[in-house]
Amino acid sequence: MSFEFFLIYTVTVFVATIVPGPSMLLALTHGMKHGAKRTIASALGNLSITLIQAAISIAGLGAILLASEDLFNIIKWVGAAYLIYIGLSIWRSPNMAVSENPESLPFPTTPLRKMFLQAAFVTAGNPKAIVFFTAVFPQFIDPKADYFAQFSMLMGTVGIIAFSCFMLYAIGGQNIVALFSKATIGKHINKMIGGTLIGAGIGLAASNR
Fold it and tell me: Which domain holds residue 36?
């Protein structure tokens, strides 16, 4: 792959990843509630599923999902239901105290394993990622070049971009909390976060392929 093609591929994946979606909303939420440092666990959950989705697409299995409307909808609805569940849980939880340093808040610490799994489930519940990879990867694979080298480059680039974008949102969330700590709107933060995730879940369920 030429440098020009690699640059186009990188920009394409970055734009598709950085656009606000369920995973990025979760990154923002975890950054606000747990701080960017602890949200690394969530980013790893997102990264692991993203790489699996990319591998499925490269292996050609993504075409099956693309052709099966029932399978696509099942995955989509399960993911939407999980997003709504998380949103309702946050909405109904006690008002979240805000601080310029979320990691110092005197609340029970959410286990890193739970944060990892939440991000993994939200990412897995978005089948559009597989459809996207299935559509994009063939455009940048040279059948005459070494397949393993291209596979490694495509996957590695996806992984770096996915992790970086997730953490950008997490850092943004932490900074937002710092601003809210000086405003009365801070006491309504749970309602804002929960409502946003519920809306994202409903939007995912209602969206067309």
Answer: 3-68+97-184
